[in-house]
């Protein structure tokens, strides 16, 4: 941020007076003090080479974990080399939103192919050109289900907490009432959901697998939503769809996903990819862009920007979404990933994630003190008890180069993916015996 501030004391003083702040620090008052880095402790007058060397020395203090057992919405997965090769092409890397869209046939085709594969993956009819992340996609999805008579939203208590916060924020800004269905034994019970539904309920949102890694009774939840006249929105793990029935097959109206697992590295938290797809009746309520295929005047295959009905610069007075950028580069990465993996590769990644999670659960049970908190089928994540304070366990494992699962109260949420090895799981079990 420093590079955007006025450079002289007089200019800074004038700026602060204009916006009503007493100091530069007051500009950042909403940023917690413990995450502010302040000025770098580097002597002045160093050459570029000396500064780089000093920064590399400082970066050496960072912890690089050799084993990762943490997920909860962001996953360490294998990324085929072709993904970076394609996305690094300057024709894609530097392209911004094409306002004269049809001139950018390459970008439009990449979006069209992405949309097609998302529809195949989710079982939906229409996909857009992507959103900021999975949380904002979920919030947009519940809002697009509303109409004049129905505005209420019912949300599963087993939804990812950060997704829930985002949904609550979006809905509060639109004066939309949100009802939370408490999870019982880690699951969303269809009868509890049905009891919360009213004639004004527009959408039901649940996660599959849910935050605790458990598989919900998706058909029953969707049926309960439809019985009350509401739309069913499923927040899905895209890798799990290599094994599980798609939301479209189960009758859901909208499917949203966090697309980070599809070829995007963890990258300290972003940028990520919000995937959203729906059935045809809701197509004109989708936020963002939809690219379609047609023919040019010579009869050649061509791509056009078919629909952008809800953006703020189109029908602005009627817009219900302020999305005005798309994550085209992240969507391209996901598209290349899906093309590389194919149905067989997606199924294999899902199968490995599943089997390794169950092997990890067995090894943790052998250690003692790490019992499953909930009964039921789980995918690649699961919640266990912990014989000591979870944050203390996290610290002890970090000292040995292992990133523990996410502390959730007195429990730990563990995760495996296809890149987790049997040797890493066995080492974790042995290390747990030592640190306990």
Main sheet attributes: strand count, strand direction, barrel closure = 7 strands, mixed
Q: Please give the radius of gyration in angstroms.
A: 24 Å
The overall pLDDT, averaged over residues, is 91
Treating each run of at least 4 consecutive H or I residues as one helix, how many helices? 14
- N-to-C CA distance: 44 Å
Helical proportion?
A: 25-40%
How would you describe this structure to a colleague?
It contains 14 helices and 14 strands. By secondary structure, the chain is α/β, with parallel strands linked by helices. Helix 4 (81-87) runs antiparallel to helix 12, helix 6 (105-122) runs parallel beside helix 12 (328-367) and helix 7 (134-144) packs across helix 8. The protein is globular. The model has no long low-confidence stretch (mean pLDDT 91).
Summarize the structure.
With 436 residues, the chain is an alpha/beta fold. Helix 10 links the parallel strand 5 and strand 6. The model has no long low-confidence stretch (mean pLDDT 91).
Describe how the helices and strands are arranged.
Blueprint: H1 9-19, H2 24-27, H3 48-59, E1 67-68, H4 81-87, H5 90-93, H6 105-122, E2 126-127, H7 134-144, E3 152-156, H8 161-173, E4 178-181, H9 190-196, E5 201-208, H10 218-227, E6 231-236, H11 247-250, E7 254-258, E8 274-278, E9 290-295, E10 301-307, H12 328-367, E11 381-384, H13 390-398, E12 402-403, E13 406-408, E14 411-415, H14 422-435
Parallel strand pairs: 1-12, 3-4, 3-5, 5-6, 6-7
Antiparallel strand pairs: 2-8, 7-8, 9-10, 11-14, 13-14
Helix pairs in contact: 4-12, 6-12, 7-8, 9-10, 12-14
